[in-house]
Fold this protein.
Amino acid sequence: MGSAAVTSLLREAHAGDERAARRLFPLVYDELRRIAARYMSAGQPGHTLQPTALVHEAYVRLVGHESEYWQGRSHFFAVAAQAMRRILIDHLRRKRAARRGGGRPREPLGESIVAPADPRDDYLLGLDQALTALAEFDPRAGRVVELRFFGGLTVEETAEALRVAPRTVKREWQAAKAWLHRRIREPQP
Amino acid sequence: MTGERWSRVKELLEAASLRAGDERLHYLRAACDGDADLQHEVEDLLRAGDEVPEFLERPALSGFSDELEAENAAALVGQRVGAWRLTELVATGGMGAVYRAARDDGQFQQVAALKLIRRDLASPQLTRQFQRERQTLANLNHPNVARLLDGGVHERGAPYFVMEFVAGAPIDEYCAARRAPLRQRLELFLRVCDAIMHAHQNLIVHRDLKPGNILVTDAGQPKVVDFGIARSLDEAGLAATLTRDAGSRRLTPQYASPEQIRGEPLTTATDVYSLGVVLYRLLTGQSPYRVESGLLYDIERAVCEQDPEKPSTAALRTRRVAAAQPGPGAENRGVERPLPGDLDAIVLLALRKNPRERYGSVEAFARDIRRFLAGEPVEARTPSWRYLTGKYLRRHRVGLAAGAAVTLSLAAGLVGMSWQAREASQQRDAALAAQERAEAESARATAESRTRQQVNDFLENMLAAVEPDRSGRDVTVRETLDQAAEQVPRDLADQPDIAASIYHTLANSYSSLGRFDDAERMLRTAIEIRRRLADAELAATINDLGVALYQQRDYPGAEGALREALCLLRQADGGAPEQVARCINNLAATIKAQGRLDEAEPLYLQALEQQRLLLGERHEHLAETLNNLGGLRLARGDFAQAEAYCRQVLALREDLLGRDHPDTAQSLDNLGVALARQDRHAEARPLHEEAADILRARLGDDHPALAAALTNLGSTLLALKEHDGAIEALARAEQIRLAKFGANDRGLAYTRLALGRCYASAGQPEKAKTLLEASYAGLRAALGAEHALTRQAGAALAALNDATAAP
């Protein structure tokens, strides 16, 4: 699919076309998956991740230069963050299934990079569920978390993507974090 | 929760978070206006928010990319890449993924390893370059190189390479798992060097050498993989191609050379460097660089700026850590024994930051390791005199004291020289400092010390100029000396006094190495020059010539030289009484060796008297003369007197040199002989045994001094009728003397006389006969038919013949 088609999908999605958004998602998802591995491969302790750069590159690859369609770029961020969330959660679910015996654990030879079972996995899966619960009664707060946490966007970028004031983003972010933390800390029955 | 209420909660949260303490409390109480549930909800969320301030602040993707990539890679299994079908994912890494692949075009059955490079790492230009070099790579035919079979570009520009499938473990893991000893690790590494050398000869630089690219099969065969692949990668993407420590999840460009990190042109020196890092890891179990942060930038800076710790020190720490934490962690450890300093030097030379300062080639690197394994001097050491000498002496297990074990006085040439060379410039690198020091020194130097300085300078320069790999052979101390000797006439034609000093110094070194013929040659040249110059050192030089001739058993020649030396010394202004005394001692020994015992004795006594006056009762030179006097008494059959002298010398040497010094051992041995001659064999035996033990420990298994002690021990044991022990000692002595001096040696004939008698007593007449015949012939040739020993041998042979002839 060429960049013109992607731009058109973005425009339509931005205009509220659900079908366009559904067609856009897998494109972004695939592209992000490919780029993510490279950009994030320096996943070292203390290393600050730059998902924005990742999303930006995916955007350039899929759409072209950013100046062409600025609004589309904001929307792209939103789609990308969602895609990233999906990428991670899908991955974690598969990994967990594999650990339960659903798949054969791979024994990498040589340069071993597959991480051992990580408590963070369970935490993220729990977070994903909590976030879904949050979005049920506060979709905007859910989007803020998706953009900030999964998309790596700053407060300003998030505000731009959601077309709200940065202060609103800050308020949503603060409240969502508190709520999510409480929810994860004390799981609902 | 209703949307409206939740919105109110959010507002209150925001407002409350701007306040603290009591103010917050008052605000909330007022804002909630009696709605206790609302107030409680907000307070609860405030607490939750404060509990973990960092919650969600670190984006989710951190740390997941590797897993994502592995998953992406796994998804390709079963698909076709070029003519190959991917059958199994073998590994994933920074560069991409490695698959087991099978030929899928129906042409022929072939299993291979297919490496699919991440397309973002390859630039089209470099991929084209790889295509051009492919033929060269395919021709790289070496048992330790995994062959390149195919290559191309997969969809969307991802390059792939197909090579020989190697089922093996990375070399460091292989060694760690087997706890391979040092030698095995080095030998394995040398085979890797061979492979790289082969590639270099084909003008191919690997550029990405690391343990992950050096696999060792279960059969112990190392295979270097990924040749030429780094080349096709985007230079800018270098950091991402660099290896990562297994399990640590850290990007570690620690196998990349500084020039690689700086983006400078890469040569074979880059492979030398990376091999150095690999060797470092094999020896120590760790990286040469200690970077706490793990940040790429810090690692790169360390590679470019940090001086690696000595491998021996690093290995020590690894062992300590492993000892403190036994179990699985221990598998990372390096070699289990302390690493020698030579290996430090070798590894650190390969790891020099400046490519020009490293080994000039992998070949030179490998050769130095081979030298190390052979116990020979390594090039990596600044070839200081001290080092070359020390190494040579260790290799041959010749203590410096070996010279002193000879009854004549040898100038301590080697000792003095090594000390001087070391003083002149311990490190050639610090040439400037040395020059400054030399200048400062010469400013206040006397003519004599200036000469010494020049001698040292010459020797230093000569050592620096030695090119160990020019001929492809080892450079021994002797060759170094030979080169120096050749160079003197060229370099010092206009400074004959210094040339003579150098010849003299070289002669002393040759003597210490037991090369008396070469010493003689040097001394004769020095004497010729010094005669012309009427040099003050002429007498001393001639004395040393006498010693060199004595050592070659040219006693008349030695006597002539020593007489001339003595004459010159006595003429010298003010004399040199100590030198005169030693010269007299030497002359006496020469005369005694010619059987003129009456003539020798007064000379010894004269030397002894002078030495007592000059040096007091307690001096090594005195001990030497007393020892020779004891030997003279022994030769005269005055055993009691000999014993007295020997005991005196033994006490003196034990006091001056310690019990386990070779000279002390000689005294023990001599005392044993004096006792044995008085038929006090039981007393003699432990003395001989101790002497042999000391000499073996100090000088090695094959030293002539040990042969002498063993011969005496064997004779004593024979007298005690302990034939087995006697035969064992004498047979060893025979071996040593035969190996060191050849079949015509007088000492060998004597040992064979004793051994022949042993066999005769032990009832083995055939062996006895062979030995006694050889002994008789040898003694007659060396000493004449009338000598007492020759007669003894003849008598023993006759007795044997009588015994066997008797019915």
User: Anything to note?
Assistant: Chain A touches chain B through 59 residues (CB under 8 Å). Residues 39-50, 100-118 of chain A have pLDDT under 50 and may be disordered. Residues 13 and 74 of chain A are 11 Å apart (CA to CA). DSSP finds eight helices and no strands in chain A.
